[in-house]
């Protein structure tokens, strides 16, 4: 089985990457606003409403009214959503088990440092692109 096919199995619950991001974030943070996800994913609120509606229909998340501001609706992961997220993490761990075993500590440190540098560079590029688009 190819690596690509194996990774495709991670998405066996018909979750898109943005839907999984929402689920994963809520598993860690419990409650979050749609505005937060719109900002992080750089999409419109209506896109987040569409993504979250699909997760609500599947029973993975629910919408709850904020206790401090009744006008604000928050997204919250359900127990079923936690199970799905945990199952996907378990599958990922199974798939990547042993992947790094033959790397020594120096090689791992170098790789992690290189990825961090690449991510910083990409973030700078993306911020520059956003500034250009806003200035046009």
From TrEMBL:
Pfam family, one: MarR
High-level lineage: Bacteria, Bacillati, Bacillota, Bacilli, Bacillales
Keywords tagged on the record: DNA-binding, Transcription, Transcription regulation
Residue stretches making up the HTH marR-type domain: 1-120
Species the sequence originates in: Paenibacillus auburnensis
Protein name, per record: HTH marR-type domain-containing protein
PANTHER family listed in its UniProt record: TRANSCRIPTIONAL REGULATOR, MARR, TRANSCRIPTIONAL REPRESSOR OF EMRAB OPERON
InterPro entries registered for this protein in UniProt: HTH_MarR-typ (IPR000835), Tscrpt_reg_MarR-type_CS (IPR023187), WH-like_DNA-bd_sf (IPR036388), WH_DNA-bd_sf (IPR036390)
């Amino acid at each position: 089985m190819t690596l690509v096919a194996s990774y495709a199995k991670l998405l066996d619950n018909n979750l898109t990457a943005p839907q999984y991001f929402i689920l994963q974030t809520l598993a860690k943070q419990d409650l979050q606003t749609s505005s937060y996800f719109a900002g992080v994913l750089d999409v419109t609120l209506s896109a987040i409403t569409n993504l979250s509606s699909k997760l609500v229909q599947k029973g993975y998340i629910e919408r709850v009214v904020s206790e401090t501001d009744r006008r604000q609706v928050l997204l919250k992961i359900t127990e079923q959503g936690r199970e799905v997220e945990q199952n996907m993490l378990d599958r990922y761990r199974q798939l990547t088990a042993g992947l790094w075993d033959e790397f020594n500590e120096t090689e791992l440190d170098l790789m992690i440092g290189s990825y961090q540098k690449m991510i910083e560079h990409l973030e700078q590029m993306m911020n520059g692109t956003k500034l250009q688009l806003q200035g046009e």
